[in-house]
Amino acid sequence: MLDIDFADAGVVMLKGRLDASQSEKAQTFLDGLDQASVLDFSNLEYISSAGLGVLLRTQKRLMASGGGLKLINVNNHIMDVFRFSGFDHIFEVQGAVDP
Amino acid sequence: MNEKFHRSFDSLQQIFDFTERFYTAESIDPRHRFAVNFAIEELFTNMVKYNAGNPHRVLIEMEQMDGELVAHLTDFDVDPFDVTAEREVDTESPLQDRQIGGLGLHLIPKMIDSIDYDYDEPARRSRITFTKALR
Q1: Were B61 and a residue from A24, B14, B69, B72 both cysteine, which residue would form a disulfide, CB within 3.0 to 4.6 Å?
Q2: What is the CATH number of the domain that holds B19?
Q3: Digit-coded pLDDT (tens) for A35-78
Q4: What pLDDT sits at residue A99?
């Protein structure tokens, strides 16, 4: 399951799993963004290529209008997926701080 | 441990529930679970996308053997599709040149240790086996 909603200061919080069964829900929410935005991944446990597609589609749309996504508090597993897919070069990505 | 799953993205939650039961029963270290779930989702959803009308369920089997987690996904009454074939995906290109889709099968070998594909022609059965070292 995936929860996605605005938190304080317009930051978008994602919680749960961004897999193929949840990508449409995430895409519908992110299609509503019309400016540069921060996605907080501190409670996002998992992402698959379906989730990467959602992020890429949103980034392309926002960058075309001068915006873009910043992904913060990304866990080590998701960071690995970003590195393997080269997403760390096309997004501003900030890893989670170890406790 | 094995179970069959309906050919639908909506089966993913049941699949992750199944893998969690396996991890718990076999005391699999949590740091290995993301990669295994990733590989299973990508392989399963590939079967869903390219044989949507097939009524047969997909069989997933998992076992722990000789320090490795071994997973098998078997698809019935399908044409051959070798998921291990080399697929060029440019992960260096700038944003405007990036294609949406195609990353899943490219990423799997980076997450696990081995993957094999077998097709039984008379039975029209595809079987994918991958391993993840539990070191």
Answers
A1: B72
A2: 3.30.565.10
A3: 999 999 999 999 999 999 999 999 999 999 888 999 999 999 99
A4: 52
Q: Do A19 and B41 touch (CB under 8 A)?
A: yes
- Closest approach of chain B CAs to the CA of A55, in angstroms? 10
B110 contacts A90? CB cut-off 8 A? no
* ipTM, interface predicted TM-score of the complex: 0.94
Note the pTM of the prediction, 2 decimals.
0.96
Distance from chain centroid for Cα A6: 13
Q: What is the count of structural domains for chain B?
A: 1
Q: What domain range includes position B100?
A: 2-133
B134 has a chain A CB within 8 A of its CB:
no
- Specify the CATH number of the domain A2-95: 3.30.750.24
> Residue A41 phi/psi, 5° resolution?
-100, 15
User: B92 is written with which tokens?
Assistant: 């260096």
CA distance B119 to B126: 5
| B32's tokens | 């290995």
| H or E element at residue B126 | strand B125-133
Domain ranges in chain A are 2-95
Q: What is the pLDDT of residues A18-41, one digit of tens each?
A: 999 999 999 999 999 999 999 999
